[in-house]
Design goal:
This protein has 2 domains: about 80 residues, Double Stranded RNA Binding Domain (2-Layer Sandwich); about 120 residues. It has 6 helices and 4 strands, in the order βββααβαααα. Strands 3-2-1-4 form a 4-stranded mixed beta sheet, with helices on one face.
Length: about 220
């Protein structure tokens, strides 16, 4: 059994648990204990990404979560399950091995997301309150998010119109090249540090990938 570090973003009503070792693995629940349980419940689904990306799973399955930091938030993002906090450790230099590992996970997450979108019906099962985007709207939302996130790391990418697959592919390629570079913004320029940005982008793809998987099935 291994120890894996996580941090908690504390919202007004919910707690978001985010893995520091496994970028993109973040789940929200009503309290700390439930959030950590949710994180464990999603390990098998996250492992699919690792296996496809040929990233070793050592230390993931059977991991014991160690909370290394708790961050109160006021933006409301944590209550929605959105990782919105960049930590001090995110400012550290990203080395070539970490950058290659993260970019492999990101590339694989996109591949799996596209496969799930292609196999899902256009209309998805509604949520418990009758809400939720349908398949194509989710895909467009993820693509628009990537273009917006890119701006936070200094990239100027084209805004993808609905169904504009060529623009989406070009934007993803630019993000992959940025991820591989591990390049941070110049000192004094506002934006996201690379480690947090990669974690946020990966989370967004995986969260909606898993949403489509869950909502494409009949009740």
């Amino acid at each position: 059994m291994s120890i894996s570090p996580v941090y908690l973003e504390l919202g007004a009503k919910r707690v978001l648990a985010c893995s520091l070792e496994w970028p993109g693995l973040a789940r929200v629940a009503k309290n700390e204990e439930a959030a950590l349980e949710a994180l464990s419940a999603y390990v098998p689904r996250y492992a699919v990404v690792l296996q496809r990306a040929r990233v070793p799973l050592d230390g993931l399955k059977g991991a014991t979560w160690a909370v290394v930091q708790q961050v109160p938030t006021r933006s409301g993002a944590a209550d929605l399950g959105v990782p919105a906090v960049a930590l001090g450790s995110d400012e550290e230099q990203v080395g070539p091995a970490e950058a290659a590992r993260t970019s492999a996970l990101l590339k694989t997450a996109w591949e799996l997301f596209d496969e799930v979108v292609a196999s899902a019906p256009p209309s998805l099962r509604k949520g418990p309150r009758g809400g939720g985007r349908d398949r194509d709207a989710i895909a467009d939302h993820v693509a628009a998010g990537e273009q917006m996130y890119a701006g936070r790391v200094g990239l100027k990418l084209h805004v993808p119109k609905p169904g504009a697959s060529e623009v989406v592919r070009a934007n993803r390629q630019a993000l992959l090249e940025w991820c591989l570079s591990g390049q941070a913004l110049p000192a004094g320029r506002a934006g996201w540090p690379p480690r947090y940005a990669a974690r946020r982008i990966l989370w967004h793809v995986l969260d909606h990938l898993w949403e489509i998987e869950d909502r494409r099935e009949p009740i």
